[in-house]
Amino acid sequence: MEIDCLPFYKTGYFSEFICDYLAEEPQVQNFYNRFPDLKNFEAQIAEKATSFPDENREILYDALQLQYKGFEVSNETQTHLKKLKEPITFTIVTGHQLNLFTGPLYFLYKIVSTINLTKELKKAYPKYNFVPVYWMATEDHDFEEINYFNFRGKKLKWNKVASGAVGHLDTKGLDEIFEAFSNQIGNSTNAIALKQLFEKSYLEHDNLADATRYLANELFGSEGLVIVDGDDKSLKSLLVPYAEKDIFDQLAHKKVFETVTKFDALEQKYNVQVNPREINYFYLKDGLRERIVGQDDTYIINDTEIHFSKEELQKELKEYPERFSPNVIARPLYQEVILPNLCYIGGGGEIAYWLELKAMFEAMQVPFPVLLLRNSALVITEKQTEKLAKMNLSVDDLFLKQSSFINKKIREISNIDVDFSAQKQVLEEQFKSMYELAEQTDASFLGAVKAQEVKQKKGLDHLEKRLLQAQKRKLKDHVLRMTEIQNQLFPNKSLQERNVNFSELYLELGENLVPMLLHTLQPLQQEFTIVKM
Question: Do 198 and 158 contact (CB within 8 A), yes or no?
Fold first, then answer.
């Protein structure tokens, strides 16, 4: 196995905002608390230790014991659950939707990054305990984003009429997905293991939250991963005072809006990832998850007949906190309130919206965590590595847009020179004397010389493009093989990790897949990882 790295900015797949964050550019520094450097965790530990109450640990522990009831818990995870009660224990968290059969590969990369960071921190700060946490986004209601996974270029989709929080959805109909998946993967040892994993996860559990907990626990339980479901009454009871400030004082809206306006003031014009609402909570009940909207002295539940006075909503919040579901702005705060957390690990889009939230955290008097971009990787199988070597293709070239990739390689392998730069330079030298002559006469002749130069350069550009197209036709077999391998590694002209399901790699590597990722991905390296098998 060969491991290479590429700076994120060189891949062409990460925003300017994220690249500037990784480079610690001055214009971004006001949007975060501490940069994800090993030495900075000492101060983060000290800050969180003084602000996280022991009673919150007890509530967290009790809630998790109930959430894990009926599940087989590894010794490693059980140890971590007990350690959460200790004041010297802190968490590292990643979160993800309940994508069917994990969805894209980066689900695994997020959790591996989280696990590996806890190990690095334990080496650096041995007197503390560090627990990896996967936060299940059970309250999301975007079913269309999670009801499928891709396998070998085909979409296996769960066709179901759904509403409300996805964690509550029953798993009926997933037997059809299981059958379709089983028919495609064969009967190798690894294929049988995948079938059993899917069957036990989705056909032997009643709802999507339990199915996802089982799946993540099977993949990472031996590493002590702790899985948290925020859709929990006891945990949400800790959120009540912060929800009151959001709903009745619009504190979150004010502070996040102030930050968002600063984005527009920057020269780079960073894109705003999410915009705050005046109220950043949904009402969650009986298959319903709809926004809470304030109208004068009344609070209505969007698209329903349900409404509350201020006093009624305050009473509802205190008596039934489980009915209040934070949105993308409020959920990060909820997470940091109930967990002794030091760092959040997420993708580029997630880190971008977390960077909008620091002022809100300060106003709520909750420590803002370290933000770490998750590991990204391109895994190249042994057969693909052999193909790249035969065609003399570098991995760096594969990250180019396909047209640029083809043009670059055609210029390299062509037996004739397709680059007219030398001819253009000769042309410029010839026109120098013409300009000298033109300066001795009137301005109209100078303009005519310039126009002629532009015309002849355009002619050379046109001929160069014609010659390149001719060479592409001549070398069409080579072009076909090049684009085929690029399309395999960058499906839909995007990163492998955003399209491919882990099952494709599992068929190749089996139970060695997760250990390989744990060995390979280094979260604080902050570079794109390339793994050649």
Answer: no
